[in-house]
């Protein structure tokens, strides 16, 4: 399906243009609406079994807090140099305060983050331990979240904030992790911009009319209702997703198989397949989808073609999957990775 030599030739021809697009990121303003999560990593050394219960006792060594969920998309965009405004909810708790501090230290505009006094900040705490001279392993994960939706008053407040920002930003990113931000008023407001990129795990048709959707393979299969296992089913899925979402573009991310970009031009289905930049040094795909969305969205806002944007999203993801845990990349790393890829091929 993918002619890699043809792709590499096109990539060489586009190298200057891609670097030009990367350099333009710092001039862009984006609004990111998302389910904001704090990821906590608590590690310690196993001392002994407890006398109180058959459980391990850890001597605490370190606690690390980083943005997760939709907050990771926000952080990725900021690390790529753009001016980012974020809209969403946090609780009135130390986890929400920690997330706000992380954002503010990255010069992210947090005026659109509303405190919900009835619900906690979505927090995922991973507790890991190790014995002496052994690897650290995760033991348990503790999640803090609420299944209730924000009040109508908070939804209205967030919707009003989004409406007030649309004329001041180059694009909107919706990062939906299913934690209650994307109620109907929020979706309606977000779709009022002319360039909206949606990353959602299910029910894509809620965002009908958005510019571009970025489902991964399992999300695409869930949306179309059948397995995507060969060239024919990939083509069918792209066509069906365009019809279901009324989007201009669908980008299905397919792991080691790369990406497939679908659109219509003069009523004819257009398909472009982009190979993975990195198939071997893959250590952790956590958060890679957020990285794709970040680079892709900025490229589109800068005026790049959807193919150029997808290539840069793919390139960014190839860097962060080399690192354990949720990671970000930078313009300099992306330029270097592009040079190395072309030199090796």
Quick gist of this model?
With 345 residues, the chain is of the alpha/beta class. 37% of the residues lie in helices and 29% in strands. A hairpin with a 5-residue loop joins β11 (249-253) and β12.
Secondary-structure map:
Blueprint: H1 4-23, E1 29-34, E2 36-49, E3 56-69, H2 70-79, E4 83-91, H3 94-105, E5 109-116, E6 122-130, E7 137-144, H4 152-165, E8 171-176, H5 184-190, E9 196-200, E10 212-213, H6 217-224, H7 231-245, E11 249-253, E12 259-265, E13 268-274, H8 288-301, H9 306-320, H10 331-344
Parallel strand pairs: 1-4, 1-8, 2-6, 4-5, 8-9, 9-10, 10-11
Antiparallel strand pairs: 2-3, 6-7, 11-12, 12-13
Helix pairs in contact: 1-10, 2-8, 4-5, 8-9, 9-10
N-to-C SSE string, H for helix and E for strand: HEEEHEHEEEHEHEEHHEEEHHH
Q: Helical segment tally?
A: 10
The major β-sheet equals: 9 strands, mixed
DSSP strand (E) fraction? 25-35%
Which regions are unreliable across 5 or more consecutive residues at pLDDT < 50?
Answer: none
Count of distinct strands: 13
Nearest-angstrom radius of gyration? 21 Å
Strand order of the largest sheet: 5-4-1-8-9-10-11-12-13
What integer is the average pLDDT?
90
- Gap between N and C termini: 19 Å
The best one-word shape is globular
